[in-house]
Amino acid sequence: MFLRITIYTLIQEAIIFGILLFGKNQHVSLSNYVDVSFLVALITLLIGLFVYIMRSGFLDRVHNGFRNLSRKIKREEESEFSDMLLSELVGLQYAGILISSLLVMLSSILCIFL
């Protein structure tokens, strides 16, 4: 778990520094770092929350209904994946994504006060 959080955090930091170095603003400052890191962490947090919602089973009924409707319109037979729920199809763990995005967001909040 710690390794996964570290990898996700390093990926976010690489994206942040890539945006800072190759973005429209050609200068790197603490203010730009705070802005970009907060936005990257917010997007990552939203992705983590979306994965959490999908894994929790909240969208299983909606996904199953759309799949049945599509199968009836196309007149297809059931396949081996047709009876699997959406929460079973998503294999991505959400805890590492959420914790790493919160760490990056916390670092951007701490950098505001420097």
TrEMBL record:
Pfam families reported for this sequence: DUF3899
Keywords, comma-separated and alphabetical: Membrane, Transmembrane, Transmembrane helix
Residue ranges crossing the lipid bilayer per the database entry: 6-22, 34-54, 92-113
Annotated InterPro entries: DUF3899
Domain DUF3899, chain residue ranges per copy: 35-83
Protein origin, superkingdom: Bacteria
Protein name (database record): DUF3899 domain-containing protein
Organism: Listeria cossartiae subsp. cayugensis
